[in-house]
Design a protein that fits this description.
Length: about 210
């Protein structure tokens, strides 16, 4: 790296360091809240600046554009939406997953819906959305299914096992569109009991709630 390039990199780092990690988290939270409230298309750098009492020039200097800021917010708030779950049975794990996903659906479903159209036009935004909200949940559910397979609760080649995460996360997103209501914990638990467990060959009596 030349001395000129090094100087430019140092200057950029200096500019970015003016926003602390704690302040960045406040900005990210505001960005995602504004998207939930009004949608991606209505989000503006001016609106973020007003909500967070941050100078618009600071936002542009730090992130450059609205898409870059949204991608940073998704990556910066990336988290496991499912807590560590291991009840000792696949049925118990899926019930607990249904409760956890349902509890968060009021915040995560609006965000996913608001970003979906824009994400299809932006590979970078789609990647960030998947990494922040979707893939962690898929991985957690697939781990539950694999543990159930290893314990012998389902057949090694159970055809329905491939679709558990798709079913559980898909119905969470579909219910608001079909019925105008979020897929809350009670709804998702009923869905697990009546659709997913039978498809896996697991009786509803397996590891009942509260056992």
């Amino acid at each position: 790296m030349s001395s000129h390039d090094a100087a430019q990199e140092s200057a950029a780092t200096s500019r970015r360091s003016k926003i602390t990690p704690e302040r960045a988290q406040e900005l990210y939270a505001a960005v995602l809240d504004l998207i939930r409230e009004s949608g991606y298309e209505s989000l503006t750098m001016e609106g973020v600046a007003s909500r967070t009492r941050c100078g618009k020039s600071t936002l542009y200097r730090q992130w450059g554009s609205k898409p870059e800021l949204v991608v940073a917010a998704l990556h910066g708030t990336r988290r496991m939406l499912l807590p560590p779950i291991d009840t000792g049975s696949l049925a118990g794990d899926l019930r607990e997953a249904a409760r956890a996903i349902g509890a968060a659906s009021g915040r995560d479903t609006p965000l996913s819906h608001a970003l979906s159209h824009a994400a299809l036009q932006s590979p970078e935004l789609l990647c960030a959305l998947r990494e922040a909200l979707i893939l962690p949940q898929i991985a957690a559910i697939e781990d539950m299914v694999e543990r159930g397979r290893e314990r012998g609760e389902i057949a090694a080649d159970a055809p329905a096992a491939e679709f558990v995460a798709t079913q559980l996360l898909g119905v969470m997103r579909a219910r608001p569109l079909l019925e105008g209501r979020y897929a809350d914990a009670a709804y998702l638990t009923r869905f697990v009991e009546s659709s997913i467990l039978p498809a896996l060959g697991i009786g509803a009596e397996a590891a009942p709630p509260g056992a």
